[in-house]
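Sequence only, no structure available. Ideas?
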Amino acid sequence: MLRRNKAGGWFTLPGGTVHEGEAVNQALKREIFEETGLRIKIGRPLWIWQSDHIGQKLVGIVFETKEIFPNNIKIKLSPEHNKYSWYSTEKLFRDEAVDPYIKREALNLLSGYSTAFWMKLQG
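Reply:
I predicted one. C-alpha cells follow.
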C-alpha cells in the first residue's frame, strides 16, 4: 500500500519519525496506525538505506509485514494524506505517480512481500 500527501507529489510508503527513546518497531506500528488505521505485525528488515535530504540525515528501514489486516479492512488516512492505493508488482511499475525510488528498490526485492514501510530516524 502506498499513500499520497494532500500537497500532492508521488505515491510513497507510509512512515514517520522515531521519537527519542522509542523502539523502531513500536514507532513503525504507531506511524502506520496514525497514517492508515492499519494494525500490523512486523517481520524481518528487508533493506536499509541512508540519505541526506534537505539538511536532514535519513535512515530508512523497510520491513516485511505479516498478518497485516483482516479481509474487511477499512483504511482511515490521516488528515495529511488524501489518497492511497494497493499495488501489485505490475501496477507498481506501470503507475507514473509512484515514487521512482520505490520502484527501483522494489526491483531489488521482487520476492513477493506484500507491503513495505519506511521510518525516519532522528539524529
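The first strand starts at residue 2 and ends at 5.
Hope that gets you unstuck.
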